[in-house]
Amino acid sequence: MINILYFASLKEATKLDSEQLDAAGKTVSELKAMIMERHAITLDGAMTAVNEEFTDEGTVLNERDTVAFIPPVSGG
């Protein structure tokens, strides 16, 4: 299982702080597709960190990884 963390607007959109999905062996891109379908949200522009390190969409996930999705932040 992969532990998934949601922050800011994604936390509000999913109504979850975190969840676990069976995604070991999948890429970050495949995980994003699973989540977007599951919650009817978009992760376009969201930064992705795996085990507290920013990563790209081609990273392959391992059992018990923690993936954090951090949406773009605007301020003023």
UniProtKB/TrEMBL annotation:
GO terms for molecular function: nucleotide binding. It holds the Pfam family ThiS. This is Molybdopterin synthase sulfur carrier subunit. Transmembrane segments: none annotated. InterPro entries: Beta-grasp_dom_sf (IPR012675), MOCS2A (IPR044672), Mopterin_synth/thiamin_S_b (IPR016155), ThiS/MoaD-like (IPR003749). Keywords: Nucleotide-binding. The keyword Coiled coil does not apply. The keyword Nucleotide-binding applies. The lineage of its organism: Bacteria, Bacillati, Bacillota, Bacilli, Bacillales. It comes from the Bacteria. GO terms for cellular component: molybdopterin adenylyltransferase complex. GO terms for biological process: Mo-molybdopterin cofactor biosynthetic process. Coiled coil: none annotated. Belongs to the MoaD family.
